[in-house]
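Researcher: For the record, we're logging two predictions in this thread. I'll number them. Prediction 1 follows.
Model: Prediction 1, sequence and structure:
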Amino acid sequence: MLEAVIFDMDGVIMDSEPIHYETELEIIKRFGVTDYAPEDHAKYVGMRTWDLWTGNIAKYGLDTTAEALTIEGDEAYINALREKDFGPIEGLLPLLNRIQSNGIRMIVASSASRENIKLVLDKFAITDFFEGYVSSQDVKKTKPNPDIFLLAAKTLDVSPEHCVVIEDAKHGVQAAISAGMKCIGYRNLNSGNQDLSKAHIIVNTHDNIDLKLLEELTIDALKH
């Protein structure tokens, strides 16, 4: 039985990965790195900024700390979100309305910070669709671990097997599956060539997600 839909944010609610990459590129260029490609960023899609900078420090031998770059990167990204004029991913608003009109509950579970999530939901005026949000700051282990999705289910007081997660990243799909939830893989080309093969179904647009599909997933009518 379908009780809740859990939304990832980056790449599902907003097309954020190009903005992430731009802010990272500006920072890493200061250290003399000239070959930081979108593919380097794509490996960390769905994970914490801390994990990204830890990996890049090791790869490029950057003379700094993950903590320092995380603070700088998050600040630069938040400023970019405030300044740029953009809206939600195409098809998101009709999807939210379809789900809400059928009385299905929704929550956001994102590796982004609480400040970041709130800023995006407020910017798009979609806060009222969701019963709350959980972030990487609320759990000890982030995606691909299942903790953030399990916390989302606990926040709504619903069983994991009655939840469907919408994810655009390999690490997020793995987290959803490990949480015992059904997962829709949303193919967002701006999120890089993500391996979504473990998702129960893959879609290329939010228009392909309707109540029938969501309900069929939770009664296991679609087999992985």
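Researcher: Logged. Prediction 2.
Model: Prediction 2, sequence and structure:
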Amino acid sequence: LFCSVVVGISARVLNTTSPADPALLSPRQYQHTDPDSGTQLDCDKCPAGTHVSLHCSLTAVRECSRCPEGTFTRGENGLQKCHPCRSPCPGGFVEKATCKPTQDRVCTCPTNSFLSGAGGTECKPHSLCPPGTRVRRRGSETDDVVCKPCTKGTFSDSSSLKCRTHTICHAQGLLTSGTRETDNVCRPLSTSSAKPFTTTPLPGPAKAVLLQEPSSATPPSALSGPVHEGQRPSS
């Protein structure tokens, strides 16, 4: 009983198919022709990060080996050799993903720059939207910034993600109308129309009255009083 079970499993794993009927091939299998018998076999693929080191046969399943350093395979495969990784990133680029058995090396442009040039051979900084425009679409690793003019009633006087609304002049009145690049300029407030600034004194203690002292130059007669007729001042 045990032997019959093993034979049954082997028959399913190593099932042969006709070349005229490829639809029966599983996506997790690849076809291989056995060199000894000439039979076409459906072999199981090897997992990502490995490759087929020995194909399946009528009596054995396939064998897998890990990808050597500097090579990779992304998914299940029937490859006899792994793919070589890309060369180290050139100057001006940064390594986004390292080379390892399950993935290739990925080089990209630094932050705030994008891939440009013929065949994407250089990195250029993202453009700055000029005055009068705003950012419509931010830049990415592969595309530059896309700008869009400010709509009526708005402006931008420097590189900006969005446009600002023109200032509304109320009491002052409008001196100069704004544009897509400049804001409205309002008239300055008139000094004649401004109310005088007054203050009301706060109640407080009464101020002391300053009495003037008599002058030392006052004549003596004024101090001794009037002199009566016929009377002389005593000596």
